[in-house]
Amino acid sequence: MLRKALFPLLAIIAMATVSAGSWAAEPHEPVNHRFCFTCHGTDGMGSEGINGPRLAGMEPWYLKRQLELFRAGGRGKHPDDYHGMEMQPMAVILTDENIADILEWAATWEYVPATPTLTGGNVQRGQQLYQACASCHGANAEGSEAMNAPQLAGQNDWYLVTQLKNFKAGYRGVDPLDQYGAMMRTMTSGLTDDQAIVDVVSYINTLGR
Hints:
Helices cover 53% and strands 0% of the residues. With 209 residues, it is an all-alpha fold. The chain has two domains: 2-106, Cytochrome Bc1 Complex, Chain D, domain 2 (Orthogonal Bundle), CATH 1.10.760.10; 123-204, Cytochrome c-like domain (Cytochrome Bc1 Complex, Chain D, domain 2, Orthogonal Bundle), CATH 1.10.760. It starts with a helix and ends in a 5-residue tail after the last helix. Helix 6 packs across helix 9. It has nine helices and no strands.
């Protein structure tokens, strides 16, 4: 309960901070990247404690779309999407120039696959479950811009688990602005329980390494 109560408070504090001009006060002023470091790490590899995913190596077209979606309120507004609610107020004050600056900055990080953390997954079952994902994300989870599907291989497994749960529970992908998220919601219907999610992500952990 305390954890749930803290997220709205943190969001309000973040909004007050950036509104005061400590981040991007002018439309063409570069983003102060230290705000990104807090959750995504100084090396862009993410932080499990704060649930900030790896940005290093993330496709610029996907990162751009998600930042714009957060900014527009199409993601991070559901009260049970705790971590999305932390990100949304950080994105809402971004200009198009700020987002372009973030994309340029994130591109300077070298892609290094995140270290797997999951245990208890059935990789064989996960491989079977992943076949439905492969049509968009690729046989090796390499992603496809043509399908608007990001790379999954090498992403933080704890982040993938959280997002799959969010899609399945309706915390993400329900806003009309998030049309690709809506497609993901449909695809998660084949993941019948939390164990299935762990299994498929455990299989993804074996790809692209």
